[in-house]
Amino acid sequence: MSCNLLTNPSFETGTLSPWFTTVPNVNIATVTNATAAYDGEYYLDLKTDYGNRGHSIAQTLTGLQRGTVYDFSAQIQIPGPSGVEYCFVDAYVGANATTGAIVSQQLLPTGEWTTVRGSYQRTGRRAEDVLTLTGSCTSPGSSYVWDVLVDEVVFGAAEGCV
Which stretches make up the CBM-cenC domain (predicted)? Predict the structure, then answer.
């Protein structure tokens, strides 16, 4: 793949920074080594929300170039067995999940790391924007919070470093 524009892509600093949650002051994202990470020692445990809704983490991207195609990938695990029927992982650039869409993938609670990937072509002129990664799960009851585990997030130009 390409040069990664993200900092702390595998959460190996043991902290979330420079990633941030899109819901401030709520403990929805924990960097942990409670089970085996996909890469290195740490991974992110992203909690979903009640009512089968999701939560998100984001990171500011710099050095984006108009017309450039960027590849995205992330290692995602939905712990199993659990009461989850399925989960969705979505990634997008900018403030609009539709126009900036990279990927929306359904995952089952297998307890295995799965690669989620997509691509994005930059059409805007600004060299800076935000990458958002969201995890949401569906279960028979809406009174539960579930875990979406995240590791090795990559976002970079498809043609290599630019």
Answer: 4-123
